[in-house]
Amino acid sequence: MPRKASRTASRPSVVPVQRWFQFLESQSAQDIALPVSVLFALLVRWCIGLHGYSGQGTPPLYGDYEAQRHWMEITTHLPVSQWYSYDLQYWGLDYPPLTAFQSWLCGAVATYIDPSWIALNASRGLESHTSKQFMRATAIALEFIIYVPAIVLFFRSQHTKMSWVARQVSIFSVLLQPCLILIDHGHFQYNSVMLGFLVWTVYFAAQESYILMAVSFCCSFMFKQMGLYYAPAVFAFLLAQCFRRKHGTVLFVKLGVAVVATVGVMLGPWITSVDQLQQILVRVFPVARGLYEDKVANVWCAVNVAVKLRSLFDAQSLVRLSTCATALAFIPSCIHLFYTIRRQTRTMQPTAIRVFKYCLVNTSLAFFLFSFQVHEKSILVPLAPALLLIDEEKWAVNWFVQVALFSLYPLLCVDGLQIPYWVMAVLWAFLRSCPACPAHTPTPKCVMVLQWTSMLVMLALHTAHAFVPPPSSLPDIYVVLNVVYCCAMFVAFLAYFNYRQFTCLQVQPTLKQKKD
Prior knowledge:
Radius of gyration: 23 Å
Number of helices: 22
Helix content: 55-70%
Shape: globular
Largest sheet: none
Number of strands: 0
Distance between the termini: 17 Å
């Protein structure tokens, strides 16, 4: 006999994804919810992978896809001492050692299946159908090994604060977040590994497993240096834990040993050579490349429309300027987190984790907006912790995802991924019912107006780009407008999430505890 629908399904939602899980709950079919969500997420990724990728058919350097394949080639065939110095003009390795080890592992699998995919030098520019399938499969496999389990465990651990429906909606929504899918499985990269370790970091923080938290965070920034965007928040959180505990000095020493050991193991093959360590540092932090590359929706690129900073200042001055601006943007959030943790009691642990998530968003968004050498794809970094707030900040996160996706459009357009872009944009808007907010969620009218205005601006720019040729004197006008608009929106989101962090302790909503 089917059990009665629980209290969570008593009020039908206007959000399609929520209605689906309410239906499953009313039919006592909760057991199939997670497998269906994961399999649907897998299907979407594979379908996106059937389209093109970065640099397809554009010799001599091709694009990010070729870079990832080439790194498998050099890590498989060359000694470790040459990984960061071999033929740097052709996609020299410029990510930390954990990426190199991942490339070596994937290269070993490729060698077992078909050695021609990564033959040294001879395989450059290889674009066979079978090698593409293999590359796409590696991106999916790594995401489902590291990122997906972290997302599932994190939200399932929130059982005392979220209903079953809310947890399933959050898991499904995060797994269908369009920006990460289009970049990793369309454009082609492995960002889900770095972001997966970040989610594990937050999960271990919530479980009070601080040593594992430190290890997972080290894995994040040792896979991609953009993981350091989270460093101020993680440092403030762990330092505050050391100060608030009776045996805080012991915890501090343990954390130091864990960090040194983790980083030391990953740098092990090069640790005896100062020259090689310096080469890794130069490759991972390419100051010589300039303030930014291409057109990215951060403050420096937007300001460059009116003030040509790179003409007025040398590289070192711009490094100092961006460092100071970045620090000023994230320090208040980190100080607030530190003192919140210092004062926390056992009953305040969930609130402290919530503040930590806000701080992760604020520090990483500050780095995206103000730091040196930022890429368009780096918007994925602040988006990841924001998605962990998707239940508390429904309309804000929905809106943030839409603007972030719009900021990636010029890059995806170059890759020929317009159709996947529109499919994922419409799918997200439909599933999350945005920009319209759920009818039973009180949302200020001004927010509704701003959301719809934002959507209309994005649609207007898309329409103009599609049907109105740019003037010959301003060939990049639509890309520049995209940058300026998205930058303004991201600055607004930074202000909003800082406000929410500083005020979330003042009003604690009453959360109904529900059992599965």
